[in-house]
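This is your field. Please look over both lines of this record.
***
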Amino acid sequence: MQQVIIHSDGGCQGNPGPGGWAATLSSGPHYLEICGGVPATTNNRMELQGAIEALKVLKEACAVDFYTDSAYVKNGVTAWVKNWKRNGWKTKEKKPVKNADLWRELDALAVKHEVKWHWLKGHAGHAGNERCDELANLEMAKIKKNFSREQLQVLLAEFSAKDEAGKLF
């Protein structure tokens, strides 16, 4: 089984706001960087999207060491998802799981591999994490360049309305 090391990160400028995600993948001499962004989203959605997009790159079952600075992602995928699935994607308070669409996708991708999830402190000099942070921030800068302030405000209002109505996740 091929050994792969993945780092991922995600963030927002404002939460919610314009967001970016990024991941780096390395295996032997091979190295890949991927990144993307969304004009109106949350930090947690971008953290999840970075992890999802990284695992989507893998074409066969791999042994993965996955590094994230998101306790939300690490705890969710290693502990919370089991209970959410058993409870019909409801929390222990019987409320719908936030970001269930992305959690379902991440769970489906992760089970195809042997993933060891590692949490690391963000902005602490870890090269892979720092690179992902840089790439995610570049994606947010692209969004701010390609959308006017007014366009971003409209998209943010639409995002917030969907979230409040419970139609987003």
User: Anything to note?
Assistant: Helices lie at 43-57, 71-86, 100-110, 127-146, 149-164. The first helix runs from residue 43 to 57. DSSP finds five helices and five strands in the chain.
